[in-house]
Design brief:
431 residues; alpha/beta; six-stranded parallel sheet; 43% helix
Length: 431
């Protein structure tokens, strides 16, 4: 389907949804003393966006009043919800963009809806900070008018969009330069920036010219009360001795096509009909990838689950003998921390991935690393791990221990608190 055309269903009830907000009662005396935060995210609905939801609920427990503005999505169609002490306002969004026109329409529509909802939230319970989660790098436009009322911008840098554009389109054209400008402008307006890793922190300081003491690394660490180790479910292996698991977005830059090439090699060249591959997740390329599996004649060995519940996700990953991350080696993936890596580690699973800087930083010795974008070597690393149960067990323990000692969400909370202390001190100093 051509995603340049907006799907405008379910966007006409915004007034009613906002009017049902029980937070209207919050406009009581003394409310100005509360630290109030508005989080704006366009990429995913909440609480499905795990990082944003962990940040929001953590801030709420730290004593902040938290409101989220985000799009609707599957299973998250309600325009207003109050969950775990957090106000959530949602707006209808077109299908995921494809092409310049599609992105312009999607992001333009999102900006309008975000601003309308932000004004309504501000009139009901005044917020002091707008916490902007990219992509896109246009949310600063929504925040600009609120500067007149002393509202500060905190930029939560999830994706490096210029590198993402290069990964998708492979050219440094007008749109690439536009993305660089939007990124610089966002950093220029932000009082504090949150980076997901040290690579992103360097970009904020060097390319974004942010002062070093205003950039805080808050990794997307897994919450161990969600990612629980449970007994394997034998049925997940579909009668085969081994299961290889994947969870993530079904997109071009995620390298699922390379994984399918690895599977084709294993099945047709190595005669490995004893491995089941289960790929959890959805995305714009899911249908194309399913067709590619048929063309490679490996569809009997590959299950695409689409988006699933946490229960099914845990069944698949806990039943897997190894887990994979086939993200292509490029500037975007090399500098980005993938949530799936730390989720695999939290569940004590050994990993196969390509050689990526942040991927190696996260996984360390809990992963084997294939040569750059080489699906045959990737397949060899899968075979190597399947042949060595003791190695799998040792690598799984290493990954789990690393999460417990430094990468889980509880270890990120002090940095998140420090970032907010900084922005509120900044706000106090300039108020």
């Amino acid at each position: 389907m051509n995603n340049d055309v907006l799907r405008l269903k379910d966007i006409d009830n915004t007034d009613a949804a906002v009017d049902q907000d029980p937070g209207d009662q919050a406009a009581s005396a003394g409310k100005d003393e509360t630290r109030s935060v508005l989080i704006i995210v366009e990429n995913l609905p909440c609480p499905f966006d795990r990082r944003v939801w962990q940040e929001a609920t953590t801030l709420q427990r730290l004593g902040y009043e938290v409101t989220i503005i985000c799009p609707t999505g599957k299973d998250f169609e309600r325009r207003y919800e109050f969950l775990d002490g957090v106000h959530i306002h949602r707006y209808g969004l077109p299908l995921e963009a494809d092409g310049a026109v599609g992105y312009a329409l999607e992001y333009g529509w999102a900006a309008v809806m975000q601003f309308i909802l932000a004004v309504r939230v501000f009139l009901k319970r005044r917020f002091h900070v707008i916490h902007a989660c990219n992509p896109p790098d246009t949310i600063f436009l929504v925040a600009l008018p609120f500067r007149l009322f002393g509202v500060k911008l905190l930029f939560d840098h999830h994706d490096i969009n210029p590198e993402l554009y290069l990964a998708k389109f492979g050219r440094k054209d007008f749109f690439y330069r536009l993305l660089l400008w939007l990124e610089r402008t966002t950093f220029a307006h932000a009082r504090v920036s949150i980076a997901t890793n040290e690579s992103y922190r360097r970009i904020a300081i060097e390319r974004g010219r942010m002062p070093e003491d205003r950039v805080f690394v808050v990794r997307s660490g897994p919450k161990l009360d969600r990612l629980k180790i449970i007994p394997p479910v034998p049925e997940r292996k579909r009668g085969r001795p081994y299961l290889v698991g994947y969870v993530g977005v079904m997109g071009r830059q995620e390298g699922i096509d390379l994984l399918l090439e690895s599977i084709r090699y294993l099945v047709h060249d190595r005669g490995r009909t004893d491995i089941q591959f289960t790929l959890v997740g959805s995305g714009t390329e899911l249908e194309w990838l399913q067709q590619l599996a048929v063309r490679y004649e490996v569809d009997a060995f590959v299950e695409f689950t689409g988006r699933v519940s946490d229960e099914v996700l845990l069944e698949v990953l806990n039943s897997a003998d190894i887990c994979v991350n086939p993200d292509r080696v490029n500037d975007m993936n090399d500098k980005s921390t993938m949530n799936k890596i730390m989720e695999y580690m939290a569940l004590e699973k050994p990993i196969v991935q390509f050689e990526l800087a942040e991927g190696r930083f996260s996984a360390g010795e809990s992963s084997l690393y294939a040569r750059c974008n080489d699906p045959i070597d990737f397949a060899h690393q899968i075979e190597r791990l399947l042949a060595e149960p003791a190695m799998r067990e040792r690598m799984g323990r290493i990954g789990r221990q690393r999460v417990l000692e430094s990468l889980s969400w509880e270890h990120q909370v002090p940095a998140l608190k420090a970032a907010y202390d900084c922005v509120f001190e900044e706000r106090k100093g300039r108020s």
